[in-house]
């Protein structure tokens, strides 16, 4: 429903019975008018098409009035015969052939009463016509029950077209009927038939597209314009997307190497367990435990990549199917959610660019609604969004007129490319310069707002009309809604309609749990359902702008595909980032995960939800199960050998048949009598259940069922304020089974996991031009804090009832998909064995011991085979995933850096939070570009305790290398052989920590002194304690051996 709030803010609290519409104008109403005309189809009740000023005729024997849709349905999935005269339908030219058409001499030419040829079939043959249930069998209808009857009007001469003069009228064969039964029982005219027919028509409208076909010379079929309505036989009826499996020449060797690596691992552990180190039993046992954990973690990570696939979309087919020439677009509506909290850490200019890219996307403007969630109730965000809405009136028509990419002005004007390429419009240069100046003035206004917001007045902020800002108290304020764009009277500078832009700040009160981002997203689900109720939702972070203006169309190729889109709960796009150095020292791009792991999951049940750049199906977020295929009919005597039926089930079948006949008669007798009562009871029961599930808002509950609301706009605004009140979710299933799931700071993993448990599948879409781009953390400290938050969420899930190890069995979750979810919540626990394993090299070098005994030839072959299989697995993954070796190696390095720092701290924070109730607030990652240029802050370290463990590991391993080499130099040539294994072990750790080391060495003046002091102190304490305790050396004292020289002589 379009809403006109006069450009004013709506604020209120449902619990306090407050509702304020500040200086609002009258709210208009929109009325819909539906007109029908034409001859009525006697099957579905729809009008019969008019072709060449003549009605469409399906049957050339009796001219029984049937529309084109019912005719095609009957030929494809029904009896292929006329309901009145039982004559088999002839194929009308332009329709697809079906089984049996090959026996005909020709096709009817045109489907018109004046040009129809007489059928040569003898209609007196006994044709067994099954019940029309569009290919599905219903248990309550007997298999021999007649479905097609002669309607009452068929006997009337006026209801049948006359035959041409001189042609004998063919005999009419009525169907046998039991006079004591209602006619509706047989199929046509019944409520069940109409419902099935409407469902089939809806499916056909999704599958078919009628377009205009014109010949090279302008000739149409039969000399007329019948070809304009021919169903598309090529592009319009083709799938909107397709899977592209990885070439067998790449994937088969990859799978073979995985199996070989498993075999080598078995031999490796067989050797390691059966060959302990006599002088260092503790070192040996510790290393074996760590290696077993690493192997288990590798299995959980590896096997979900067994079936990697890629996908390809066809945007032209989407347009042919849903955007008919001369008709309104039939593409589905999309509600876009943008979330922000703190404008000081998430700059308003970045958020404004995200909003502008959404408003300018290549999608029908009347089908896009953008909802901005301000969870910090900051007036700076509100004012910046107001400025953004004004600038959008100029930016949106400019970007669409010249088809520019990307449509975020900050990134469009700063890209270093030839912006004149493929531009032919004579005014492009002039308008681009003018638009760039407009944007620079817009940036100045935003910067002015930011500067003003740095100093908050003592009395709080005041709006332009003198009204106090309702969100002055961040933790105690009413809900706020304002529609900036999308209401009457607000158009762009060219007079065109703009997408809807709505500001939302949910109510917050002390004593209520607000659930951070997940709670804000659930508030957006409800308020968008009340205002626009689009069937699909796009969720983006405030710093993730739309880089590809056709991103929404890419998602619709999967969600709106009539054949494969019904079970798709969301379409996930990969994350791509701007402002990252060429070498990507801290693996900000995370290419291995997005280009390898996610492709592997897409071949199973779909990728996991990563928190942004994802288009959802609204019904899936409501906690509904995925649509399931009806079970095939149970096996009967027709599908088993006769001797089996005679031996096993003869007596049972007779009794069972008698019982079924009795039950079916009882059902048929009482079905129509109790139909209305049953429907009323079910509606009342379901209404109560829905209110307990979704909350006490009748408007929202009605929207979950797809029912249009007919209330006034003022009441609609009150309902919108109601659904974002702080107590609305009490005693409901929000956050438990509905919407974004609560219980973890990484609500994205939980939300996607619950959907997959309900039987849905997801899709991974990787268009050639990245759909979304965002801002990555600038320095290592922010990056580690980001990884800390992700790992903390995984620990919370692991310690909750939703842990994939024990949750969701019996649902629709596939086993390999479960492996992936288990790996996503178990990986923080790897930090303990990883931290211990990275300490072992230094211990070995300081003590002269090692984790393996003297290596034999057999052991050497096993170790070499293991290293080779590890390397080959990585190489083949890079090959089919399209990942460079630099990205793969940076990912391996940061896995170690993050594992020994962020994951380790997250593990203890999660244990404290879950077991002891000590809550820790995560730090919002700073968003912003590299304004100074040259990546000035790339190696700038901010103080954080996360930097201590990797620095400590670096120092003790470097000290161990120095001590080991010095010892070898002092002891001579024989000591160099055993040293190589220990040196290789230590260098392996140092190489993985090299980005961290380079940051320390490259920006020494920026390293906090406390980090160096703490690291040296911890290293010294560890070394002294080791020398004092040394648990891996025998406590019986030094081992004395008899010298070979006789000293007495």
TrEMBL record:
Gene Ontology MF term list:
cellulose synthase (UDP-forming) activity; zinc ion binding
Going by the entry's taxonomy, the superkingdom of the source organism is recorded as Eukaryota
Q: What is its EC number?
A: 2.4.1.12
Membrane protein topology class: Multi-pass membrane protein
UniProt pathway annotation: Glycan metabolism; plant cellulose biosynthesis
Renumbered residue ranges of the record's region Disordered: 101-124
InterPro entries in the record, alphabetically? Cellulose_synth, CES_Znf_RING, Nucleotide-diphossugar_trans, Znf_RING, Znf_RING/FYVE/PHD
Reactions performed catalytically: [(1->4)-beta-D-glucosyl](n) + UDP-alpha-D-glucose = [(1->4)-beta-D-glucosyl](n+1) + UDP + H(+)
Q: Which UniProt keywords apply?
A: Cell membrane, Cell wall biogenesis/degradation, Cellulose biosynthesis, Glycosyltransferase, Manganese, Membrane, Metal-binding, Transferase, Transmembrane, Transmembrane helix, Zinc, Zinc-finger
The cross-references to SUPFAM superfamilies, in alphabetical order and at most eight, read:
Nucleotide-diphospho-sugar transferases (SSF53448), RING/U-box (SSF57850)
Membrane spanning stretches? 826-846, 858-876, 896-918, 939-959, 979-997, 1009-1029
**So where does UDP-alpha-D-glucose get bound?**
339, 345-346, 375, 516
Mention any one GO cellular component term assigned to this protein in its UniProt record: plasma membrane
**GO BP of this protein:** cell wall organization; cellulose biosynthetic process
Q: Which cofactor does it need?
A: Mn(2+); Zn(2+)
One Pfam family here: Cellulose_synt
Ligand binding (Mn(2+)): 517, 541
Cofactor note (record): Binds 2 Zn(2+) ions per subunit.
Compositionally skewed regions (Polar residues) per UniProt? 114-124
Subcellular location, record wording: Cell membrane
The RING-type domain sits at 41-86
Q: Which PANTHER family match?
A: X-BOX TRANSCRIPTION FACTOR-RELATED
The name under which this protein is listed is Cellulose synthase
Q: Which organism is it from?
A: Salvia divinorum
